[in-house]
């Protein structure tokens, strides 16, 4: 049963693969780094569905915030460093200090500000290890939708026009409700 942020943190702490991934990224000392989206959501939804095998991730989303270096090539360099450490993992690294341009938004002021603008509330979640190796969870829109298996647009996405062109497309492409049949999609 997953009912709280504490339950999610315990679930992650008990997963040696996830903790190793977090430690691998922590070693890079990226500014304001987090691992977000499907990395967390998939673990929670697999658990809530009683899956004994983890669902494969298309990528491991590593996000950070560094306004002093927004060169996309540096992100590729970070990905190559991660591949050196864990070559079989599908790393994806994005500096959130530049992603507002791609998303047609005002500049973000931190990684969690950027995460709060992700399309779905259940995806708008992130983990990291702090300097004391404590596991931290950030959920700008809370965890209720995540643990109740709901897909809903985040408040910033509800304001975007047209919502259907991005949110609906993602829901159809990702097919979360096919991978996790208890998931309920809202807002389309």
- When the domains are counted, the total is 1
Q: Could you give a short account of the major beta sheet? A: 5 strands, mixed
Can you give the helix content as a percent range?
A: 40-55%
User: Briefly, what CATH class?
Assistant: Alpha Beta
Number of strands: 7
User: Measured on Cα atoms, how large is the radius of gyration?
Assistant: 16 Å
Going across the major beta sheet, what is the strand order? 3-2-1-4-5
Oligomer: single chain
What is the count of DSSP helices, taking H or I runs of 4+ residues?
A: 10
Arithmetic mean pLDDT? 94
Shape: globular
CATH-defined architecture: 2-Layer Sandwich
Short description:
The chain has 188 residues and is of the alpha/beta class. The protein has helices spanning 5-13, 16-26, 38-48, 72-85, 96-103, 111-115, 144-147, 155-159, 163-174, 176-179, and strands spanning 34-36, 60-64, 91-95, 126-129, 135-138, 150-151, 184-185. The chain has one domain (5-149): Beta Polymerase, domain 2, CATH 3.30.460.
Structure description:
Strands 3-2-1-4-5 form a 5-stranded mixed β-sheet. It has helices at 5-13, 16-26, 38-48, 72-85, 96-103, 111-115, 144-147, 155-159, 163-174, 176-179, and strands at residues 34-36, 60-64, 91-95, 126-129, 135-138, 150-151, 184-185. It has 10 helices and 7 strands. With 188 residues, the chain is of the alpha/beta class. It has a single domain, classed as Beta Polymerase, domain 2, CATH 3.30.460. It starts with a helix and ends with a strand.
């Amino acid at each position: 049963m997953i009912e709280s942020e504490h339950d999610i943190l315990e679930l992650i702490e008990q997963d040696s693969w996830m903790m190793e991934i977090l430690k691998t990224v922590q070693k890079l000392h990226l500014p304001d780094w987090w691992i977000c989206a499907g990395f967390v959501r998939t673990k929670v939804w697999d658990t809530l569905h009683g899956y004994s095998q983890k669902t494969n991730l298309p990528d491991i989303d590593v996000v950070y915030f560094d306004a002093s270096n927004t060169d996309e090539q540096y992100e590729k360099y970070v990905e190559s460093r991660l591949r050196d450490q864990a070559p079989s993992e599908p790393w994806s690294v994005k500096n959130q200090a530049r992603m507002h341009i791609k998303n047609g938004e005002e500049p973000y002021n931190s990684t969690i500000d950027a995460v709060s603008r992700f399309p779905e509330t259940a995806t708008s979640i992130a983990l990291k290890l702090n300097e004391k190796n404590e596991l931290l969870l950030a959920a700008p829109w809370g965890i209720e939708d995540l643990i109740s298996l709901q897909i809903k647009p985040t408040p910033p996405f509800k304001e975007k026009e047209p919502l259907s062109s991005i949110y609906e497309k993602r829901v159809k492409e990702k097919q979360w409700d096919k991978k996790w049949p208890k998931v309920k999609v809202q807002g389309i």
